[in-house]
């Protein structure tokens, strides 16, 4: 194979129908993982692919799988190939790849993920599918119901294996692999290779070729990542607003560790006039799909997310990533910041840290083998006020309603539901709940029945009644 051949997809051995779809998609040159993995997959070898997110890893197995599956016929409830993905978003992204690259091939596909009704999926499976893409839990649920037969699976892909480990799916993956003892080829792809994944590969792959295109813990050179030290967590929101204004990015992903913090931060950003939305595991699939679609289309500027989005979101033009919380697992740092610096574009990633995060930061720096550059943010001065109480410095600097909302948040204005005192009906209902005051020592008169005491209460009580 000459240098000219491997510069393009035509030199990888793929059939013309697939090459035509690749050209339609606008791709001209394969990435390193694609150049090295695709020819070996076509030879039907087992592969262990180690590559970071954003390196074209998904196409490195979808393209040769389409070529392999182009000949043959699926039978009812017996898929010919299986791809296991750790999250719904990643599974959906993989399905989109098959639709793009396989549009000139007469192949069928089914997507089995949680949060989606089973009726339509069952109809597709009954007809027979060439490619089945599923999350492990959903896959086993369908198998246990007798809806899927795995005896016809020839090619299996375990995608994002290290994420499977983090999410506790490895026992499910092992059981699924045991159900497909007759498979002919197994492909395992992962961004990192912890010892548990290494043992999984040794157990289920036969003489695999290991294709590693980058050191597992290496951050991409197109990403400029920085650590933003803060004295304590109470300044995080103010720091986030300052950072977003300073970077002036039209799109960004903001990661939090906890689902409840995602919702709270999203509401704060909306109050500060940002166009923000959130995504986390408690949302049903239709909500998550709608949010991601709006974000990809540019209808949403800021996406606040848990790690559910760290490995399932593929947007080539993502200028900024912010870790509002230091990730609890060092590997997740690589995946989070890997959302930027994609498709040859440069990107920035900022991580807010407090003294309590020192151990987590140290773990990340040990994994990456370098010290993360520190980025110091200027402390925002308190606004000046004239005799009328008007904020003069805010007027001079042209601060927007967004920054004023941030100052109100930091001063505690948003900490109760009654941020302003409404007028008219409903005033009392809007006030915070308080313990009732004892007004016996108050100088104001105690309000009671007043001058309108009912007559029956003023009648004298008969002596006979008192004696009784």
Helix content: 25-40%
Rounded to an integer, what's the Rg over CA atoms? Answer: 30 Å
**Classification by helices and strands:** alpha/beta
Termini separation comes to 116 Å
In terms of DSSP E residues, the strand content is 5-15%
Spatial sequence of strands, sheet with the most strands:
3-4-2-5-6-1-7
Residue runs with pLDDT of under 50 for 5 or more positions:
1-6, 381-451
Q: Say how many strands there are.
A: 14
Q: What count of helical segments does DSSP give?
A: 20
Shape: globular
Residue-averaged pLDDT, rounded? 80
Largest sheet: 7 strands, parallel
Spell out the key features of this protein.
7-stranded parallel sheet, 468 residues, globular, alpha/beta, 20 helices, disordered N terminus
Describe the structure.
The protein has helices spanning 3-6, 16-24, 32-42, 57-69, 88-101, 118-127, 136-144, 161-166, 170-178, 195-204, 236-247, 259-271, 285-297, 330-337, 358-368, 392-397, 401-410, 427-430, 455-458, 463-467, and strands at residues 47-50, 81-84, 109-112, 131-134, 155-158, 185-190, 209-212, 223-229, 252-255, 276-279, 302-305, 320-323, 347-353, 373-374. By secondary structure, the protein is an alpha/beta fold. It has a seven-stranded parallel beta sheet with strand order 3-4-2-5-6-1-7. Strands 10-11-9-12-13-8-14 form a seven-stranded parallel beta sheet, sandwiched between helices. Helix 13 (285-297) links the parallel strand 10 (276-279) and strand 11.
